Amino acid sequence: MFIKNTWYVAGWDYELIDGALLARTILNEKILLYKGADNAVVAMEDRCCHRGAALSQGRLEGNCVRCMYHGLLFDNTGACVEIPGQESIPPSLKVRSYPVETVGRLVWIWMGDKALANKADIPEFEYLTNPEWHGMPGYMHYKSNYQLITDNLADINHIAYVHTNTLGGSENYIAEQTQTPMERLENGFKLTKYHLNSDLPPFVRKFVKHMPKVDRWNTVKMLVPGFFFLESGFSPVGNGIEKGNREGSISFRNFQAMTPESETTTHFFWVYMHNQREDVDQISRSLSASILEGFYEDKAIIEKQQEVLDADPAFPLRAIAADAALSHLRWVVDQKIKKERAAA
Amino acid sequence: MFIKNTWYVAGWDYELIDGALLARTILNEKILLYKGADNAVVAMEDRCCHRGAALSQGRLEGNCVRCMYHGLLFDNTGACVEIPGQESIPPSLKVRSYPVETVGRLVWIWMGDKALANKADIPEFEYLTNPEWHGMPGYMHYKSNYQLITDNLADINHIAYVHTNTLGGSENYIAEQTQTPMERLENGFKLTKYHLNSDLPPFVRKFVKHMPKVDRWNTVKMLVPGFFFLESGFSPVGNGIEKGNREGSISFRNFQAMTPESETTTHFFWVYMHNQREDVDQISRSLSASILEGFYEDKAIIEKQQEVLDADPAFPLRAIAADAALSHLRWVVDQKIKKERAAA
Amino acid sequence: MFIKNTWYVAGWDYELIDGALLARTILNEKILLYKGADNAVVAMEDRCCHRGAALSQGRLEGNCVRCMYHGLLFDNTGACVEIPGQESIPPSLKVRSYPVETVGRLVWIWMGDKALANKADIPEFEYLTNPEWHGMPGYMHYKSNYQLITDNLADINHIAYVHTNTLGGSENYIAEQTQTPMERLENGFKLTKYHLNSDLPPFVRKFVKHMPKVDRWNTVKMLVPGFFFLESGFSPVGNGIEKGNREGSISFRNFQAMTPESETTTHFFWVYMHNQREDVDQISRSLSASILEGFYEDKAIIEKQQEVLDADPAFPLRAIAADAALSHLRWVVDQKIKKERAAA
Q1: How many domains are contained in chain A?
Q2: How far is CA A21 from CA A96, A140, A330, in A?
Q3: Is C162 in CB contact (< 8 Å) with chain B?
Q4: Residues 133-152, chain C: which have Cβ within 8 Å of B?
Q5: Contact assignment for B57 to C304 by CB distance below 8 Å
Q6: B52–C171: do the CB atoms touch at under 8 Å?
Q7: Tens digits of per-residue pLDDT, A45-64?
Q8: Residue of C158, C308, C311 with shortest CB distance to B70
Q9: Edge-to-edge strands of the sheet including B64-66?
């Protein structure tokens, strides 16, 4: 069960260069993504309407794609425009196409009712196109439901135990951090956590040498179905980050998007960005490697968690106080699914 | 759902030399095939009637096979003839045996009612035992239903797009070819396609250098459940192949047999033969390698097609004009299955 | 369907040294096994009650284990004793713990009603802690139901065909052996087989050179659900082993325990022991390697048998005379399961 009338990330724009025919399953539907000669991105059913051959094994021809089984040609709306050896083409010979947009270096797809698709609703991560911010786009395939990943992100206290030696830095993070009240948004939530007079976490210590002790902040915004926006920073101790003073600090921007492939697998897109002016590429690479190390720590736990939950679907989860944000997110998702079902 | 009262290819005769106990699943039934001391081929259930051990893990003893778990010995009719440590043998201790014949270097098995098995019904491919014709027997395991393979063969126009650079030669094949009306047979169909003034396809160009342009013909006969007989030839341009003149031409004989292993997997047997008198083995090897290259092109499309169809069993296929032959074949199969069911 | 109110082997004691958190699925339940600072073995659900993370990915802290996802700490009764960042702990936050005992170098677990667990019911194999007996503990993972393995052991005549060249020695074993009547036990059976004037089997010939011909005996005791106790010996010919004379003989003790992992997979623990006084370790290693060679012969047949049975659940097995012991064992198991169900 997924929200259908919403934008999902289908891929990075770089995945479609050079005439690629990208096959990707999204919400259990097999999708073909490509960029035609007119430079517009196309998303259509990856299944020829004739005998079910995969169009991603076909050939790009201008703005069209040709099925390389019997040669049927489809335009970028999914209509069949040529059948070799046959003159008339019945209008039933077409494949489904999907609304698709490129915003912020990401390709976005709308899996629901076309009439409701509105480009303005795409939750853009503005730093991706800001020339002052730098980072390497990442992709991971997860063997878990997307909500086990959003659960994980909704309580960043997990950095204390999961990421002690990578992204966190101290098991005392949970006890020592303070946080603003969670701001409930219509589509998610927002909150900031402070950790004063803390050590720099390992992933930043690799290239920041002048601040042994810091005041740390993490401003998290999450939106359903699966978007995570983070502003993270480290300031000289005592500057007053709680009052908004960012002077002398070093900060990062992080975006993560989870797109369901199936009920038990997920496409995970992410980027971690910095605005340093020297050693720009070296720092991007260091961050990318560090974050990946941390993400593999998450992946090991979450994929095992999926396996445990699958083994006993009747297992009742027990909430703790720190679950407020994840509970809110799951509640919003459930409401949206109910609403879609009622309308249908 | 398969036709049961029909002959299927169970293997090549060379697979049973040297006392091999060959395990092969056919129509979802586990079968043991072997050649006893009397040189007769035997096909029986590959499952000891005692505790279900696989007889293919046993030992050939004369015309019998011994289960190497507890030592029960079965003769070539499937009857248990020895239980170590036990004097009397209840007649219920037997395994099922199947009618089996060796015809044309192929081992044929009858999976249905024994009383209906008639050796004369085996669709022999006479060239396999004709000393003037040469070719290498081939086997492939397919992850698809056998009918997706017969569909493919029923419209050889697919050589235009799938095999352009191997067995086909030109994407214009479909537009430029002409064909005789399909002759509907009780058990299949027959037709001939002509492609005049065409280029030699890549697989023939490898060893035929003296005919840059040719008139090409393909005479296809297909029989249910899954047999494909092809006479294929290339004549000097303008000789009149449509009128049956084969003078100066080079021609080939091709046989393909598809035997269901399960609903989604298939045993695929094939041979591609020539009657050249020089470089006989070199040409056989060249043809075998070229055809295999083409068959891997089919396999990639068809196995993906199976995957696509499995993902959405409700998907409605849309026919095109070129589907006449495959539709006829599928109709014949359906009629036969219905008739068998009605009789049962 | 398994007997629940009974002791199963969960592991060897050596598997829990050095603070290991051992994850093992038993009767389809995911279990965590460890030895706390107090040296007592603990068995608990391998699933955090909060979000289902695997506790075996956690950290041992004294007698407790900490979930390394959000830091919840559980004591050795399964009670949650710490939630980082939260003061009060609802009593519902606990994981299930299981009665567990270490007896005879083996860790035993009780999967049923705790109130019925009685350490005295553990079927100890006394030789494991007897300093005069030596052997190497073994473990194998089986892709079969545990009863296909107990079936195999219940008729040791299978050594004639399965283990001719390893543990058996002669295909005539079945014809030439004699046996005492099977003694039906409440929980299993017991019997002795004699094979007079036989050759030493290959696994003994490796280190016993002075007895070319021997009288052999095998005293088998089996208990449900899956325990096999064997006293095996080889005497100078004509000493009168049937009357109990063991003089001048060499003998072995063998224990095998089968613990269901799932309906189609099994944990298999075993040890083969000798009481020689010279070359002690060499003989232990030789025996371990020989027995393992034989066990792989069993495994090949039994795992294939599982595959054959899975393919056709309606297949009716046909009993032979040698099945008396296995039939009795299966009957005892069925009775116990029925009794447990009736009580529930």
Answers
A1: 2
A2: 16, 19, 34
A3: yes
A4: 151
A5: yes
A6: no
A7: 999 999 999 999 999 999 99
A8: C158
A9: B59-61, B64-66, B73-74, B80-82
Query: pLDDT confidence of A330, banded at 50, 70, 90?
Result: very high
Contacts of C191 (CB under 8 A, 6+ apart): C179, C180, C181, C182, C183, C219, C220, C325
**Confidence at B266, pLDDT banded by 50, 70, 90:** very high
Model pTM score: 0.94
At residue C169, the pLDDT reads: 85
Residues 14-53 of A with CB under 8 A from B: 28, 30, 46-47, 49-53
pLDDT band at B344; cut points 50, 70, 90 = confident
* Domain identity same for C331 and C251: yes
Residue B298 — very low, low, confident or very high, per pLDDT cuts 50/70/90?
very high
Quote the pLDDT of residue B90.
95
Nearest by CB: B158 against A57, A69, A90: A69
Assess whether B82 and B217 both reside in one domain: no
pLDDT for residue B26 is more than 90: yes
* CATH code of residue B195: 3.90.380.10
Q: Is A17 helix (H, G, I), strand (E, B) or coil?
A: helix
Interval B134-138 mean pLDDT: 97
Q: Dump pLDDT digits (tens) for A204-254.
A: 999 998 888 999 999 999 999 999 999 999 999 999 999 999 999 999 999
Burial state string for C100-129 with b = 16 or more CB within 10 A and e = fewer than 16 = bbbbbebbbbbbbeeeebeeeebbebebbe
Of B63, B92, B121, the one marking the end of a domain is B121
Interchain CB contact of A308 with C (< 8 Å): yes
Q: Which amino acid is at C128?
A: L
The ipTM of this complex is 0.93
User: How high is the mean pLDDT of chain B?
Assistant: 96
Show Cβ contacts of residue C190 under 8 Å, excluding neighbours closer than 6 positions. Answer: C182, C183, C219, C220, C221, C222
DSSP C146-186: HHHHHHHHH-GGGGTTTSTTTT---TTHHHH-EEPPPEEET
Asked if residue A116 has pLDDT above 90, the reply is yes
Residues C145 and C112 grouped into a single domain: no
Q: Which residues of C touch B72 (CB under 8 A)?
A: 320
Letter for the amino acid at C195? H
By C-alpha distance, the chain A residue nearest C31 is A308
Contact by Cβ (8 Å): C326, C154: yes
Chains that touch B (3 or more CB pairs under 8 A): A, C
Tell whether A216 and A94 lie within a shared domain. no
The helix (H) or strand (E) run that includes residue A280 is helix A280-311
Nearest chain A residue (CA) to C59: A161
Decide if A57 and B315 are in contact by the 8 Å CB cutoff. Answer: no
Residue B272 lies in a domain: yes
Name the DSSP letter for residue A33.
E
The two beta strands, B7-12 and B106-110, are antiparallel
Q: Which domain, by its residues, includes A153? A: 126-340
- B318 vs A: CB within 8 A: yes
Q: Which of C157, C175, C305 sits opposite B53 (nearest CB)?
A: C305
Measured in angstroms, the CA of B339 and the nearest CA of chain A are apart by 27
